[in-house]
Predict the 3D structure of the following.
Amino acid sequence: MTTTGLDEFALLDETWRAVTPDAARRMLIAAAHAFAEKGYHATTTRDIASLAGMSPAAVYIHYRSKEELLFNISLLGHETSLALLNGIEGGDAAQRLRTAVSAFAGWHAEFHTTARVVQYELGALTPEHHAEVAELRRQIEQRMRSFIADGVAEGVFDVGDLKGATLAVLSLCIDVARWYQPGGRRTPDEIGALYADLVLRMVRPAG
Amino acid sequence: MTTTGLDEFALLDETWRAVTPDAARRMLIAAAHAFAEKGYHATTTRDIASLAGMSPAAVYIHYRSKEELLFNISLLGHETSLALLNGIEGGDAAQRLRTAVSAFAGWHAEFHTTARVVQYELGALTPEHHAEVAELRRQIEQRMRSFIADGVAEGVFDVGDLKGATLAVLSLCIDVARWYQPGGRRTPDEIGALYADLVLRMVRPAG
């Protein structure tokens, strides 16, 4: 493979491993970086090919269009973060909510490049692709809401507006992708721990 | 004035009133809408002129470059939201924090188009302009931090990590600009009230 502008570390990353063959994965990672850098509309398939160290024609072997690249990045991002939430079980309601917030906020730090594309370019998806992604977003919302609702049912959380609190918790975690900088003051794990503490404070009953 | 794609309501908006003459204000509002829609890099000064119902050459009478339009939008957005926070005084620490969160979150709903440009296109500013905006961001952070610190000093708030809590509060409010939709489930005022409640819960001492 040629040397490109692509962070080689990203190629080894767990999130992208399911994408095969290698060339398709390389293309998808290049697209995520280019979209995050310049925005979806200002990025050409030529930019993506060049970043991936491939010919422009090679893009179309794996993806029909630039939008299909965006859709695949968006699917992968949503499926990965949903899987994190779906994998949480056992413990009491407070432990599950702590783990959920920590994992979801941490993911948005660790995968901030992908997360920015996923969160800020939803409007560029075709209506059909948007509907598929919206369904995954509904599942993420439901899952986070169920962690809070469990604690309310058990009487250990006190939440006036369950939908509102869920919205705020998800929003808090998602915005990490905007401000997070690698090598900054806090690591993804530290952000996860801080946010889990703050959210647990939000839902605890009045003293 | 010609009929354009520009929301005429925006032209009457309080936020933009300080921009004179009218043509410069019209241009700036058009730029904010175009940047929010397509992203800064994909927007041309021709797009902006067309949206403002003016000739491409007219842009350069008021602004030297596309980046100067972005810088002016960014300045206006940061100055307006800082002024909201600076205007809060009187009452006790809890009341001031409630008002601050309500106003800051509400602003990011009401002015979500401007706020998205302001928040997501920081990277496109020149280093000099970026430094000016970063100074305003520091002042916003300090002001929000002081509202929390006042309550800690008075013993009515209990916050383990003051900087971390401030970061989370600002981030929560800013992300409203991403998900808010006019005509959606919650009005800007309702979002402000919900978020003020959640933040007050975050900082209250353990029972």
